[in-house]
């Protein structure tokens, strides 16, 4: 969510203008259906896209209504400081330095990110909403595909948090789960109680 609410709505407008189907983010907080159903060769596919979270620096631009605009597993309210210098750091300097760092380190060895299950890894209330959405999507489709933005960047092996969420979504009825975010390939699992799970398909 690098460009805040304005970037979110602009992206949706462009996709709609080009006739490209999309889901996972919503310009209106009143959107009730949080997934997309498409039919191909007589088979109905439901696509449900969600993320572990969004860039905290930009959350305040959504007026604290991030869960209404993005399918989330975790949300921490973020407010910009009233102090002008601190606000400049939050909204401009820090994001700018991060972009420079990422550009300069692209293609080099970057430390793996933590992906461990902790009490703060997800919001139980939001996870309950996810379960409810999966139930609704299953009722409208033959195959449910969950597109999951999760996992530590550059990790070649899923952490306990990713494993837990994949297990949970599978138990709730997801037929196919496609993970992305680590920017590297990880394992594919079809056994042990899983659906077809691609932990990272980057």
- What share of residues is helical? 25-40%
**Looking across the biggest beta sheet, what order are the strands in?**
1-2-3-4-6-5
Beta fraction: 15-25%
Question: Cα distance, first to last residue?
Answer: 18 Å
List unreliable stretches of 5+ residues.
none
**Shape, per Cα inertia axes:** globular
Describe the main β-sheet briefly.
6 strands, mixed
Which class best fits the helix and strand makeup?
alpha/beta
Order of helices and strands: HEEHHHEHEEE
Number of helices: 5
Computed Rg: 18 Å
> What is the strand tally?
6
What's the rounded overall pLDDT mean? 82
Give structural notes.
The chain has 202 residues and is an alpha/beta fold. It has helices at 4-18, 66-69, 84-105, 124-139, 160-172, and strands at residues 36-40, 43-51, 143-149, 176-180, 188-189, 196-198. The model has no long low-confidence stretch (mean pLDDT 82).
What is the topology?
Elements lengths: L3 H15 L17 E5 L2 E9 L14 H4 L14 H22 L18 H16 L3 E7 L10 H13 L3 E5 L7 E2 L6 E3 L4
Parallel strand pairs: 2-3, 3-4, 4-6
Antiparallel strand pairs: 1-2, 5-6
Which key features would you list for this structure?
202 residues; alpha/beta; six-stranded mixed β-sheet; 5 helices; 6 strands; globular
Quick structural overview:
The chain is an alpha/beta fold and 202 residues long. 35% of the residues lie in helices and 15% in strands.
């Amino acid at each position: 969510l690098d460009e805040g609410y304005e970037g979110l709505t602009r992206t949706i407008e462009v996709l709609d203008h080009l006739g490209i189907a999309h889901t996972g983010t919503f310009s209106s907080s009143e959107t009730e259906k949080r997934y997309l159903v498409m039919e191909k060769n007589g088979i109905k596919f439901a696509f449900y896209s969600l993320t572990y979270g969004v860039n905290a620096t930009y959350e305040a631009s959504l007026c604290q209504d991030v869960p209404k605009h993005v399918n989330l597993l975790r949300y921490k309210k973020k407010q910009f400081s009233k102090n002008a210098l601190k606000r400049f750091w939050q909204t401009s300097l820090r994001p700018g330095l991060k972009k420079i760092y990422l550009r300069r380190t692209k293609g080099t060895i970057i430390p793996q990110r933590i992906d461990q299950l902790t009490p703060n890894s997800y919001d139980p209330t939001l996870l309950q909403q996810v379960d409810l959405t999966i139930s609704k999507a299953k009722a409208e489709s033959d195959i449910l595909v969950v597109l999951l933005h999760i996992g530590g960047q550059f990790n070649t092996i899923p952490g306990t948090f990713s494993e837990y969420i994949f297990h949970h979504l599978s138990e709730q009825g997801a037929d196919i789960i496609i993970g992305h975010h680590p920017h590297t390939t990880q394992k594919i699992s079809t056994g042990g109680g899983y659906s077809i799970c691609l932990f990272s398909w980057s």
